[in-house]
Amino acid sequence: MAEAFTARGLTVTLVEQAPAVMPTVDVELGRLLGQELCRHGVRVVNDVTVKAIHREAGSLIVAAPPRALAPALRCRSWPS
């Protein structure tokens, strides 16, 4: 589904706590899936634990270890 959003011109970042996307499948298959997502314009960030997500000035701020998501991810928030 992430690549469908990039096809519509949106910026998509997939943050995964595991070493590869879809951790319930084989790790190598997860890596291949991650590469395919990247090929479709999705930014894939693995091995990151998101601590919190909060609103700030019309954006959603993702709190994670400093090295993991630099620069910090910001995205427009959905209307309330």
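[next item in queue]
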Amino acid sequence: MSAYETVPRKATLKLDKFTAAVAEDELSDFKQLLKLSKMGPKTYENLQEDRRYGMTHSWLSKAKSQWESKYDWFESPSLDSNRLPTDT
């Protein structure tokens, strides 16, 4: 049993297991919004490759491109939240 499955002794709410799921039409809407979203302009801050001002324009541009064209939203292991204990 992992630590996530241990309910605190003083918990007063009843916990129920659930499975996270996203409907295909909602994912389709998200993909459309992602496609239509515009990248912000290049600025001094977001061009600093040492990331001292946060993420870079280059990183965000590559991530957006990956999410739009190559990322499999249903098969990605990084989004496999159902492998973790889920209680509400």
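[queue empty]
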